[in-house]
């Protein structure tokens, strides 16, 4: 009889390169784990499913965690007790891309840009990028489109003029000749792009093993020759099997993060972006309380 491993349910916006490497190298069997991933359409849906027990873990923006863990002024109208588990990456090429029709900042006037929802961290980062480009957000229409893959399609099909993209959608945007205007690094050298999160409470044995496996897979990503990673992805996640994508993973500006520490400085950067957009902003004590409850 085949051995049965604990099954972890994960909600994520795009394919995880860390899990692809772990599965491609057989780390799931070595750590005695199995998992299933679900591609979520929006952050409200992701956190509703986490709250309802449909997911054990979520791969998400830390800004989402701030919004849902520190206030009920979020799309679910409920403060959710959450626990941050570890950082994942620095944004994987997170940047504002538009069609080539937008050639100058003045061309943004009257255009439509796509977002997940206007309360999301990516939407607030978009507002910050527009401000630094000298573009008034009041001159632009914003359209809820969904997660990054949907926003890329909306740009290429002409439904919107641009959006924030990252990971494989940023690679695809570059390949499609879309114009890159600003990246997360232009906003902050300490931008934290993605984290792993669960509901508040102790870390189970299976989740602890999962975190140990994640750390090993991250180390492999950072230490491997790019061509070796492309080969692993070609078997486990063909959509990620490009040199451009691997370059993002290994980038000191955008790439994967080793270790489980999430700093208050990284979360404060996100809070400052919220404050600049006049959106709900957690205070320093709320951020400290979230980090304390995550240790």
What labels would you give this structure?
295 residues; alpha/beta; D-Maltodextrin-Binding Protein, domain 2; 2 domains; five-stranded mixed β-sheet; 42% helix; globular
Strand coverage percent: 15-25%
CATH topology name of the largest domain: D-Maltodextrin-Binding Protein, domain 2
Mean pLDDT: 94
Major sheet summary line: 5 strands, mixed
Briefly characterize the structure.
With 295 residues, this protein is α/β, with parallel strands linked by helices.
Descriptive notes:
With 295 residues, the chain is an alpha/beta fold. The chain has two domains: 7-91 and 191-293, 3-Layer(aba) Sandwich (D-Maltodextrin-Binding Protein, domain 2), CATH 3.40.190.10; 95-187, Periplasmic binding protein-like II (D-Maltodextrin-Binding Protein, domain 2), CATH 3.40.190.10. 42% of the residues lie in helices and 17% in strands. It is built from 13 helices and ten strands. The chain has helices at residues 17-24, 27-30, 43-51, 62-70, 121-132, 148-156, 167-175, 184-187, 205-223, 226-236, 243-250, 264-276, 284-293, and strands spanning 7-12, 34-39, 57-60, 82-89, 95-98, 112-115, 141-144, 162-165, 179-183, 194-199. The chain has a five-stranded mixed beta sheet, with helices on both faces. A five-stranded mixed beta sheet has the order 7-6-8-5-9, sandwiched between helices. Helix 1 packs across helix 10 (226-236) and helix 5 packs across helix 12. This is Putative ABC-type nitrate/sulfonate/bicarbonate substrate-binding protein. It comes from Pontimonas salivibrio.
């Amino acid at each position: 009889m085949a051995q049965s491993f604990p099954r972890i349910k994960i909600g994520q916006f795009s394919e995880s390169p860390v899990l692809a490497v772990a599965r491609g190298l057989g780390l799931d069997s070595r750590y005695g784990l199995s998992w299933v991933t679900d591609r979520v359409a929006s952050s409200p849906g992701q956190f509703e499913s986490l709250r309802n027990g449909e997911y054990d873990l979520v791969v998400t923006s830390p800004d989402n965690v701030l919004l849902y863990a520190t206030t009920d002024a979020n799309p679910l109208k409920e403060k959710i007790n959450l626990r941050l588990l570890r950082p994942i990456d620095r944004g994987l090429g997170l940047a504002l891309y538009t069609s080539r029709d937008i050639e100058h900042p003045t061309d943004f006037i009257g255009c439509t840009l796509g977002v997940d929802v206007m309360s999301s961290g990516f939407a607030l980062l978009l507002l910050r990028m527009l401000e630094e480009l000298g573009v008034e957000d009041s001159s632009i229409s914003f359209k809820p489109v969904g997660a990054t893959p949907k926003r890329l399609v909306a740009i290429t099909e002409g439904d919107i003029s641009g959006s924030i993209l990252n990971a494989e959608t940023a690679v695809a945007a570059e390949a499609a000749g879309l114009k890159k205007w600003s990246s997360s690094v232009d906003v902050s050298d300490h931008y934290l792009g993605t984290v792993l999160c669960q509901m508040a409470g102790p870390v189970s044995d299976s989740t602890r093993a999962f975190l140990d496996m994640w750390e090993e897979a991250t180390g492999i990503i950072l230490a491997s020759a790019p061509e070796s990673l492309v080969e692993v992805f070609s078997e486990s996640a063909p959509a990620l099997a490009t040199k451009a994508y691997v370059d993002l993973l290994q980038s000191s500006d955008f790439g994967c993060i080793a270790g489980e520490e999430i700093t208050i400085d990284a979360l404060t950067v996100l809070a400052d972006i919220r404050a600049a957009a006049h959106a709900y902003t957690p205070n320093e004590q709320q951020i400290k309380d979230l980090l304390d409850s995550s240790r």
